[in-house]
């Protein structure tokens, strides 16, 4: 596994988003060139943006699931009412 990997695990009610910083890698990677550093910085920025987008998407999905759950409960309770 590389030092700049991204782990995104979405489960019921939890989201683990982990992005390791590229900064230590830039200082310890032998023979790294300024071009390579810039490339890694751009990749780091892209990964952080992706994480933010995924977190936002997860929150939207949770909100929609909650709304659907509420709507389903209302419909079930309406079906259980006796007819008069």
Automatic annotation (TrEMBL):
Residues 37-71 form a coiled coil. It comes from the Eukaryota. Keywords: Coiled coil, Signal. Residues 1-17 form the signal peptide. This is Uncharacterized protein. The lineage of its organism: Eukaryota, Viridiplantae, Streptophyta, Embryophyta, Tracheophyta.
């Amino acid at each position: 596994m590389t030092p700049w990997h991204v782990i995104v695990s979405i489960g019921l009610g939890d989201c683990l988003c982990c992005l390791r910083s590229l900064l230590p890698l830039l200082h310890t990677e032998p023979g790294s060139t300024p071009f390579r550093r810039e490339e890694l910085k751009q990749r780091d920025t892209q990964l952080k943006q992706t994480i933010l987008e995924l977190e936002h998407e997860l929150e939207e999905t949770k909100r929609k699931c909650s709304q659907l759950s509420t709507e389903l409960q209302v419909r079930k309770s309406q079906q259980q009412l006796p007819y008069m």
